[in-house]
Amino acid sequence: MTNMNRSVYLSNVRLADGQRVSVSIVDGHIESIGVQVVAPHDAPIEDGGGALLLPGFVEGHTHIDKSNWGRPWYRNEVGPLLTDRISNEREWRKTSGHDAAEQSLALSRAFVQAGTTRLRTHVDIDTDARLRYLDGVLATKETMRDTLDMQIVAFPQSGMLIRPGTVELLGDALAQGADVLGALDPALIDGDPVASLNATFALAERYRKPIDIHLHEPGEIGAFTLKLLLDRVEAMGMQGQVVVSHGFCLGALPERERDALLDRIAHLRVALLTSAPPSRPVPPLKLCRDKGITMFGGNDGIRDTWSPYGVPDMLERAMLIGMRYDLRRDDDLMIAFDCVSDAAARGCGFADYGLRAGARADLVLVDAETVAHAVVARPKRKLVVANGRIVARDGALVS
C-alpha cells in the first residue's frame, strides 16, 4: 500500500438516505460532504458511480495474533470445555511454528481489503509465551499504522491468578505498548473473582488503561461476577472505561435481575460486546440500546484452534448479528450495521470517526441500494479509503 496521497475528491456517491453527494478529503480528513462540494486543489477525482457511501468498518473484538488465516487447514479435535480449548491452543502455538507477526499482518491486510479501518485485537499474554505474541502484533500495528487504527488488548487467555507471574507480564505488556487491559472469567478460570478483579483493577489504575473483560460465565455465576465488576467500576471512577465482552449471563437471567444489571451498566457507561454466537445466550440488543447502553459487534477468533469459522468482513458479522437477533426490517438492519460502525467506534473509544466534516477519512463504497442491502448482500468493496488514502479497489488491495 504505497499510495501516499491523502487528498481525494469523491463524486457521485449516495448517503444512507439516498442523497447524492460529493466528499472532499484533505490531509487524511473529511473536509466536507454535500451537494456542492468543491474539489481540493490537485486532488485526484474518483467518480463513485452512484455507489453507497459507508464509514470504514470497526472490528470491536478479534484475536489476530492466533489466527490460522491463509495457512493449511487446522484439523480441530479439541475437547468441549473452555479449559480444553485454552490448553490445546497454548500447546499448538508452542509446537506448530505459528508466527504471530506473520499471521496478524496477513489478517490485518484482509480486514483492510474488506473495508475495516479500526480494529481492537486481544493478544495472549501468558507465562509460556510471555510477550512474544505482543511483539508480533506490535510489529503489525507499526506496519499498518497509516492504514489501520489498531488497539491492542493485553489478554490473559490462560488465566491470571492461576498462573503466577501473569500479573507482572500484563503490566509489562501495558508498559510496552498494549492499549487496553484484558481479563477472563474471574470465577470459573481464576477461581477467585474478588482477588482476580482486584488485581485487574489495580493494574488498570497503575497504568491508566481501560479494561475489556471476557465474561463467558453463565447465569448466576456470571451475574455475581458482573456485580463485583460494576462495584469496582463505580468505586474507582472508571465509568466509560470498561467493556464486557460476550456477557452470556445477560441473555440467561430472569428478566427482573437482568434489567437491574442493565440499568446499572447503563448508569456506569459500561459497554457490551457481542459476536452474536448462535449457540450461546446473548445480551438483548434492542433493550440495551433502549437503555442507552453502547453495544457493538466483533468476530472474536477467526480460523483458529478454537473455531474454524469467521472471515475478516464486518458486513458479514453485521449480517450474523442481524440473523441472531432476528433483525428483518430495513431499519433493524441499520442497527446491525451500527454495531460494526458507530457503536463499535464509541465502545472502543476510537476518535474522529464517522461520515462528518473533521473525521478521519475512512470510507467504503459498495454497489448496494441501501445499508440493509449492503449488510445482507455483502457486495465486493468498490473502494476503500483509509486515513485519506485509497487502499483497496474492486475487492483488491492497492499496492
Automatic annotation (TrEMBL):
InterPro entries: Amidohydro_3 (IPR013108), Metal-dep_hydrolase_composite (IPR011059), Metal_Hydrolase (IPR032466), Metallo-hydrolase_Enzymes (IPR052349). GO terms for molecular function: hydrolase activity, acting on carbon-nitrogen (but not peptide) bonds, in cyclic amidines. SUPFAM superfamilies: Composite domain of metallo-dependent hydrolases (SSF51338), Metallo-dependent hydrolases (SSF51556). Residues 47-392 form the Amidohydrolase domain. Gene3D superfamilies: Metal-dependent hydrolases, Urease, subunit C, domain 1. NCBIfam families: PRK05985.1. This is Cytosine deaminase. It comes from Caballeronia temeraria.
